[in-house]
Write the C-alpha cells for this entry.
Amino acid sequence: MLYSELASTYDRLESTSSRLEMTSILAEFYRNLEPSELRQVVYLTQGKLNPDYVTEKMGMADKMILKAVIDASRLQDRYVNDLWMKEGDLGSVAERVASERVQTNLFSQPLTLQRVVENLRGIESAEGRNSQTKKIRLLTSLLHDASPLEARYLCRTVTGRMRVGAASMTILDALASAFGVKEDREDVERAFNVSSDIGFVAERLAKDGIEGVHGIEVQVGRPVRSMLAERLPSMEEILEKLGGGCALEYKYDGIRVQAHIDNDKVTLYSRRLEDLTANFPDVVESLREAFSGQEAILEGECVPVDLKTGKLLPFQEVAHRRRKFGMEEAVKEYPVRLFLFDCLKIDSEDLTLRPFLERRKAMESKIKVTDSLMFSHMQVVDELSQAELFFENALAAGCEGIMAKSIAEGSIYRTGNRGFLWIKYKKDYRGDLNDSFDLVVVGAYTGKGKRKGVYGALLMAIYDTEAGVFQTLCKLGSGFDDAFLAELPGMLEGHQSPSPPSHLRTRMEADHWFEPAVVLEVMGAEISLSPTHTAAEGLLPEGSGLALRFPRFTGKVRDDKTAEQATTANELISMYRSQATMVDEGSSAKF
Ligand code: ATP
C-alpha cells in the first residue's frame, strides 16, 4: 500500500470536525486493507507504532525533525528555521518546504506503508552514541521521497501530534462499520478495553470477524482498561441505586495500580497503562511473597503510609515515587501500602464477568496479608445508619470517602467504563459543589504584573466522550504557587500547538495553545450556564455551555490520567443537575 493513500485520508479527516463524517472516512479506508496493514494504520492514525501500553517512543525532539526537513530539502537553514518560527507546526513547515524544494529529487521512490513503518521503527529503536544522527538520517530518507502532503504527516507522526482528531471511540465506530458488525459495537469496545490494543482488535476483526473479537480475553502482561465509578450526592440515593444493599469500601487516596503476576515476574501498570514497576520495587516484592498461585491480575491503591504509626499520609507523598532516579532512597523515605480491591484473573480463570463478591473471595483465598499489603476495608451493608457510620470511620482513618459497590448477580468488572456498579462518595460532596474536576490544559495566557515571565492563567477543558472532542470549562488562575508556575512551561513542553487543537471546541481566545495532555485537579464554587464556554454543549440548549465559577487548582497534577480520562461531559452534566437540586430543593433541574 502507498503511504500517499494514508496521507490523503488524514487530510480528509483533518478537514472535518464531525465525528460521523470521520467515522465514514475511516470505515471506507479500513475496509480495503489487509489485516496486518490495518493494524499498523490504526496505530499510525493515533500517531503511534504500538498499542497504548508500549512506552517506546520515537523520541525525536523538534530540532532533530527540523534538521531532517532541512537535509531533505537542501534549502537554507535560516529560511526553514524562520518558517518554523512563523508556522509553529513542524508538519506545515515540512509540507511547505517539500513544495518549494530547489529541484525535484532524482531517483525518488514512491513511499510505501511498509517502508514508512520500517524507518519509523528504526527511529524508535535507535540507541546509543549515534542514535540522534541515525534517527535524523532515517527521517531524512523518507522526507527525500515524500510529497508535500506526505511530508506533513510524516513529521507529525514522529512528534506524536497528528492533529487529525480521530479518538479511539471514533476508530472503534469505524471498525464496526467497515466490517459490518455495527450491532456488535459494544463487543468490539469490550475487546479493546480488555486488551488495551486497538490495532490487535482491528486485525482480529478483519481476519476472523466478530468471532475473532469474542476470543479476546484478559491476559497477564496486557493491562486492562480500568473500571470507573459514578458519583451520587447522598448515601440514601446510593443505597437506593444499588437495590438497598451493597458492599462499602474505604476510598484510599493514592495511585491506582494494576498488578500482573506471572509466577515470579510482577509488572505494575498505572491507570494510563504506563509501566510503574520500577517505581514500586517494594510493592513488587510484597506481591511476590503474598500471592500463592501462578498467574493473576489484581487491582489496588498504593497509599503513602507512616510505617511507625500505620497512619495514612496525604496523596502528595506518593507522588515522590514517580521519579526516575534515586529510587532506593525514595522507597525508604516514602513508604507505601497496597490496598487490594479487585481481581480480574487468577491462574487460568478470567474473573471479569463474575459478580463482585466472588472476585473478592477468589482474591482473598490466594493472598496472604502483610503489613505492606492488605485488602481494602470492606463491609456489606443494607441500612442507612450502617452506611453513614462506615463513611465517618473512613474519614477518621484518613480516607477521602468511600466506594459503594454493587453485589448484585450482574456486578461484573466493567472494563474501561464509568458506571453505577461502583459509586464514589467523598467528603467534598457535602460542601457547596460536589467533587473536584480533572481538567485538561488546552491554552495559556501570558502573565502580567506579578506573573510577568510566567503564565498568568490557563484555559481548561473537559472531554466529551460521545463527540470525541474537548470543550472549555474555565480559565484557571488561582491555587498556583511560585514553584508550580515555574514548573508549568516544562510540563507543557512538547505539547504546544500553533492554533487551537483540531479536536477542541472553543469560543475563547488564548495566547498559547496546547494539545490536550496535562491534567490538573480543580475545585470550584458553582457550575453555571455560559455563552462563552463550550463544556457539555451538545447536551444543552443550543448556544450554551457550562462554566465553572471560581476555579482553584488543588495542587494535584493528575499525571496518572491521560487527557481522554479527564472529567467528561456526562459527568459534568450530572454534577450540574445534582447541584441544581441541592440549591433549589424540590424544584425541577435547570434545563
Ligand atoms: P478520583 O479522582 O475520585 O479518584 P478517578 O477518576 O481517578 O476518581 P474513579 O473511578 O472515578 O476514578 O474513582 C475511583 C478511584 O478511587 C479508583 O480509580 C481508585 O484509584 C480509587 N480507589 C481508592 N480506593 C478504592 C477502592 N476501595 N475501590 C475502588 N477504587 C478505589
Notes: The chain has three domains: 47-159, 228-430, 436-578. The two ends are 51 Å apart (CA to CA). Residues 583-591 have pLDDT under 50 and may be disordered. Residues 198-214 form the longest helix (17 residues).
